[in-house]
Amino acid sequence: MVPHAENAENAENAANATRSRAESEVVDLVSSLIRFDTSNTGELATTKGERECAEWVARKLEEVGYETEYVESGQPGRGNVFARLRGADPSRGALMIHGHLDVVPAEPSDWSVHPFSGAVADGYVWGRGAIDMKDMVGMTLALARQFKAEGTVPPRDLVFAFLADEEAGGTWGSQWLVKNRPDLFEGITEAVGEVGGFSLTVPRPDGSDARLYLVETAEKGLGWMRLTAKARAGHGSFLHEDNAVTILAEAVARLGRHTFPLVVPDSVAEFLGAVSNETGLDFDPSAPDIDTTLEKLGTISRIIGATLRDTANPTMLDAGYKANVIPQTATAVVDCRVLPGRQAEFEKEVDRLIGPDVTREWITKLDSYETTFDGHLVDAMNAAILAHDPDGRTVPYMLSGGTDAKAFATLGIRCFGFAPLQLPPELDFTALFHGVDERVPVDALQFGTRVLEHFLLHS
């Protein structure tokens, strides 16, 4: 063995000796989770893999002594797993740590590695779900196993929930569970899940960098809307002024090009205030150039910009069955994301834009959610970050998408997004969600495991 290789191996062995059990196995767990192809197509017939993955998670928990409950949420194969670790104070409400096992589909030919390989290379774990959200699932599973194996008693009961169907709105996952198995959530008062706790590096006026850790305290409402135009069918060669395709296309174009009014929810105002404080830049949401100013934050501006307005993005079109037949019906699907308190005004504006000849219906409609950035749990998050990154700072933000928190909030559970990761400043993190070559840094997983451990033991 050459000297420098021997030194590297010794350094790695020394590092392994100081790592906790959870930190040592989290990378392998995340890689193993990714190797389960749990692609959720949104259709019951073609979605796969959730049962096998859930059963594997249950076995990993049972290996260290947990009693688990496996539940299929309304349809065969839609597997969910629950396990509870008793805490020191049974009078306190339980904390739920939840993660979904399903992922969006991936086309292997587009990727540098196979999307379900779970490859560990170049300092990353690669594959579909690496950051959405098998990273958090792996960290949660690693810590649950460590706590049970080592006899750790947390301050309060911890409920570990591994769920199906989040990527299709939770109809056959969290939404079904909340409606049909509310007993699973008995005694739970707070919950943490995905898309929060990750770092955002911003420049300070003195040239140094500040690391902000974004805690999700709010989500826009999620609604998938079907638009339908009906008119007279006819031959494609005739003069035909009453054409369903034309009526629908014009309505879709008006809606797709429309800019909804600027609104600043409390969580967004707090985030912009914190960033202004750190950077010295003026992120005044009422300024006419706010969109340009937000671009100075880098790729996170995609999310933040989308939390200043409602959005309605056409995503699907369907009409006709033959080239020379004018169809009687044309339909479109629009992905709508609505700010808290804006639902009635949003629908009124949509109706004005699509006009009287187009009807609309909700395929899926999930309410917005917002909580305040305060209290013991927020203090515990901040303390956990500072314990492992003394220069860090937690700040609230609103997610432009949605998570299973929408379902749990209907039970009165206070929900946050806190899946901690310290990310390289150059990594385009937001582009990895549902993107090609999705990956998570190994160092970020190990950092996140340490932070999450501190948080759970002080929550």
Automatic annotation (TrEMBL):
Residues 217-346 form the Peptidase M20 dimerisation domain. Signal peptide: none annotated. PROSITE patterns: ARGE_DAPE_CPG2_1 (PS00758). CDD domains: M20_yscS_like. Residues 1-22 are annotated as: Disordered. Transmembrane segments: none annotated. Residues 8-17 have a biased composition (Low complexity). This is M20/M25/M40 family metallo-hydrolase. It comes from the Bacteria. The keyword Hydrolase applies.
